[in-house]
Design goal:
Layout: H1 25-37, E1 40-44, H2 51-64, E2 68-72, H3 84-92, H4 96-99, H5 103-112, H6 125-142, E3 145-149, H7 157-169, E4 174-180, E5 206-209, H8 215-224, H9 232-239, H10 243-255, H11 271-280, H12 285-296, H13 302-307, H14 313-322, E6 326-328, E7 334-336, H15 340-347, H16 351-364, H17 368-378, H18 384-400, H19 403-416, H20 422-438, H21 442-453, H22 459-471, H23 481-490, H24 495-511, H25 516-532, H26 536-552, H27 558-572, H28 581-591, H29 595-612, H30 615-632, H31 635-652, H32 657-670, H33 673-690, H34 693-709, H35 713-729, H36 740-750, H37 754-771, H38 774-790, H39 794-810, H40 814-830, H41 834-851, H42 854-861, H43 866-870, H44 884-894, H45 899-906, H46 910-924, H47 929-937
Amino acid sequence: MRSTPYPSTPYVPGRTDRAAPVGRTELLARLERVLLGRGRALLTGPPGVGKTEVAQAAADQATARGETVVWLAPQPADHDMPGAAAAALVASVPAFALDGLPGPQRDAVAVLCREAAALESGWDPIALRLALAGVLRTLAERSPVLLVVDDAQRIDADSADLLRFALHLAPSALRVVAVETPAPYAGGGADSGGAPMPLWVASEADVLLVPPLQADEMAELLVHHRLPSRLAGRIHRASGGNPRLALAVGRSLADSRTPVHHAEALPLSGRARDVARRMLAPASAPVRATLLLAALALRPTTALLRRAGRPTAEAELAAAERAGLISLTEDGTVAFTAGLLPSTLVHDTCWTERSRGHAALAAVADDPVEAVRHRALANDVPDEELAAEVAEAADTARRRGNSALAAELALLAAETTPPGLGRRRLQRLVDAAEEAARAARADLAMRAAADLLARDATPADRVRVRLAVLDTAGQGLTDLDEIYVHAMEDSEGEPALRAAVQLRLAVKYVLADGDPVRSRTAAVESAALAMSVGDRHTAAQALTQQARIDRVLGSPDAERTLAEARALEMTDRPLGVRNTAQILTIRHALFDDRLAEARDQLYALLPLVERRGPVEDAIELFRTLAEVEARRGQCAAALAHAGRSLALTLEAGLSPGPAWYALALAETAGGSFARAAGYARRSVRASEEEGDHVFLSRSLYALGRVQLVTGDVAGALETLRRVRDAESAQCAVDPSMLRWHEELAEALLAGDAPEEAQALLADVGPVAERLGRTTVLLGCDRVYALCLAAGGKTDEAVDLLVETADRFAGHGLVLEQGRCLIALARVERRRRRRSAAQAAMQAAAAVFERAGAVPWLGLTAESPSPADSAAVPAAGSALSRLTEAELRLARLVGEGASNQEAAARLYLSVKTVEARLTRIYQKLDVRSRAQLATALSGLATPSR
């Protein structure tokens, strides 16, 4: 029996430092409303879903309000021990709660707690009822009380009866949260505690179901536990959103030495399997047999399982649904709540039993593709006739658009081929690997490659299966150097194969190694080799990669090369759009701020890709659409497209780094700066896990921009300097692809480094002008105007900001226009032109309101920052000569902060503070902190 308030850590009175459980904010708010209203709530849900964590969070909130929290947690053995829970409750309350009890009630309590010998008739039930009610009433008279009953289904019958009576008489100041895991099967299980003993009638409490986590919430949970967030989609699919199972899967992956980007089926052994087995353990033998058939079927339904030999399937599936193992739709479709449950069932079942199950399903399947699959899986003897049927079924699945099933069947056809047909088996293994690559099934590609590489295959076949493995690695191209080396060796003397290998190397060099120069060299060689053998498809891909790198390097040949690739592509007509010249042409339009053109081309492609293309193509289009719409200021559309991109990414089990980057941009435009920073940080982490240099820079840029806009100058400087260093290391020249220059320059200015800010602008300006990047120059003009204002040239700054805002509007960049207007308002305040400042801020608000740019609109409604207020002295103009960074320091010191305290508050070194104070004293002509405080005392905050 456990009666401490927190079962996982010792209870500390007043402790409120626990973070709210991931993904439970809305549920906690609802629980809070229920407790403050009706005062009774029941948290229910399957094991491991996080019910106890929600109750703990509610207890923390109660403690923060000054309430008394009592935690009661019966153990499994307590269920059959009369009075165990009631005794534990009495033992956990303070002594004063028992002091006022009448004698008979105290005697009854003493008997219950084994402090006195029991009477022949046992304890006095009436006295005990009154005693327990009195204890709770006394507690509630001192302060409001929250009683948490964890694992309420384990309460013994006598204690449940006592508690029902006591709670019925309890005052409204006593609120109760019960946490219950429903007994899944009739008669309970080993740990179910039997049928639950309700503490109240149903109408007295609200029942709150604790749902599984969504895929995006799963990523946050993994980050919180320092587990690989880039696998959030696959882990969510394996766990069904159950936090306990998800963490077990994540830790199994962390313990595994296998590269996790190859682990489509997560994981094969370890603690995750053990958690899944515990979830399945209460299932009776009939229920387990029916679940196994469902796990073997492609599309399990109640009718299919009944026809396959389970006449009582309805009752058995209903029991499994109560246990939280499956869900049933109205038409009888069966879906497991977690992907690891069916894989564990199959994994733990012998081949003979699996074979019988497949044979039964083959006899009743109404789809010939499914029937062939089951017949092959039920067969353990190689059979060419059967293998040919399976290969034909794979072609049918491919035509239907079911690439995952096609890949599975292609590999099954190869494995069913008799050993005597060695060449045919090898060809089918190559086909299976390439089919798996198209389906993004890394596990199947690896199986096919391992089988082929263990045989006497030709160099060409070895290259093809290795390329298939590389193509399933997604963003994670690290730890694959050995595959590239072997592919290069085997492609010697084969121009077509060498061109394909060089193309993959070109992608690796820029993505994983951050070396665009080497990437371009490989792309050029790939294109030349492909053209020499008339391979237009590979040549178009190689030229596309070359054009992409030429743009990064600032080469004037980028557009010409891209046009060549586009021409080849028009004749070759590739099946997809990802990594094609067509999508790169659209992205170049995005970089050039030809946004209407980019948007129109994307929307023209979208129906075709959604109907017939692979999921990676749809993800690419939605992500690019989000970037385009965010840049255009179409904020609602940007958020919708970014959310769709992320949902598809997580559903497909791909790395979410790129989708999180797009969502960070969309949230920055029209959602929430806080959420934008959160998504950007997730993208940073996922990109670091993948070794993806490209999206690491992008996500750092997105984060630094939000930090700058929200006033975290020190954080923005650190983040944006990382971007600068990474882009410099990658020899990036074109400033239009990632516009960090203007953000870093503004951060430097705000961080009291105006010379460095102006030097950065002076460096990027000529490059942007040479390349014709007009809107990049506009961004630099905005920051240069701020530099002018900081140098006291406010009239010039105002003129430049007005002109820049108008030009941004002419390009359709409304968010940039509004940002210029905010800067204009601040400069006008600096000039003490309150009416002009108010007009500029109102104009900015109107721009943001029309665009739906919620976070930016919030900036126009905020009161002036301390630096802005300090910049407008009520008497004299000497303070206007200070930069915003100097004004922040002056105000801190004027309020009494020491140099060390100011340095800590501003994230500066003490030496920097001392140097900055010297400049402040010189500008204000003061000699002491007292004089500085006097100079600051006349400040007035202007109205907008």
